[in-house]
Amino acid sequence: MESHGYFRVPPQIINISSDITVNEGSSVTLMCLAFGRPEPTVTWKHLSGKGRGFVSEDEYLEISGITRDQSGEYECSAVNDVAAPDIRRVKVTVNYPPYISNAKNTGASVGQKGILRCEASAVPVAEFQWFKEETRLANGLDGVRIENKGRMSTLTFFNVSEKDYGNYTCVATNKLGNTNASIILYGPGAVHDGSNAASRAMACLWLSGTLLAHFLIKF
Question: Which of 68, 182, 186, 213 would you call most buried, defined as having the most Cβ atoms within 10 angstroms of its Cβ?
Fold first, then answer.
C-alpha cells in the first residue's frame, strides 16, 4: 500500500506591491501574494500613529478615495501553523494641497523685533511666499528676513517701524494647489482679534506659471 506524504511548507510572501505615491482622492490597490502548505492566511494592517489597525484579511487591499490620514506603512502578514509569519511592508505616500494650520496676528513695538509665523501642512512640502498689500517681499530687503523650515515660514522684522504695520499675506504652494492666510502686524494699542484676520481681509490669489496676481479687499 502506497503512502502519500503531505509536505508542510512555511508561509512565504512571493510577490508584494512596491512603495507607492498617489494624490489624495485616488483609488489604491495593494497586492500581497503568498505560498505555503497549508495555504497561509494573508492579512493587511495599517501601521498608523495610533497603533496597528486591522484593515483587511485578503491578498488584495483596495482603498477608494484615499485620504491623507491613510498614508504611511501597510504591513502584510502571511500566516499558517508551520512556522512564524512572513511579514513585509509597503509605504504609501499621499500627496495633498497645502492647508495653513497656524497664522496669527502679532503685535510689536517700534524699534523692537517682530515675527510673523505661517505654518502649512502639505505633501509635498509647501513653498512659501509673503506679500504686503500687492507687493511680494524679498528676503533681506527692507530689513526683513524670510526663513522657511519644513512646515513653517517666518517673516522677521529686526527693527519694526511705523511703515511695517499692516496686513501681510502668506501664500503656501505645492504642485497640487495653493492657499493663503492674512496676518496683521500691529502696534501697541491697536485693535485686533488675535486670529488670522479672516474677518477683516480677503486675499485672492491665482497661479499661472510663475506669475502670481494678488489682490486685497478690505472690509
Answer: 182
Map residue 164 onto helix, strand or coil. Answer: helix
Alpha carbons within 13 angstroms on the beta-carbon side of residue 33 total: 4
Q: What is the CATH number of the domain that holds 75?
A: 2.60.40.10
pLDDT digits (tens, 9 = 90+) for 31-62: 999 999 999 999 999 998 766 666 788 999 99
Q: What is the pLDDT of residues 167-191, one digit of tens each?
A: 999 999 999 999 999 999 999 876 5
* Domain closes at, from 31, 66, 96: 96
For the question of whether the overall pTM of this predicted structure is more than 0.85, the answer is no
Residues 170 and 83 in one domain: no
Q: Is 125 in contact with 150 (CB distance < 8 Å)?
A: yes
3-class SS at 162?
helix
Burial class (CB within 10 angstroms; exposed 0-12, middle 13-18, buried 19+) of 216: middle
Q: What is the pLDDT of residue 150?
A: 94
| Cβ partners under 8 Å of residue 116, min gap 6 | 106, 130, 154, 155, 168, 170, 183, 185
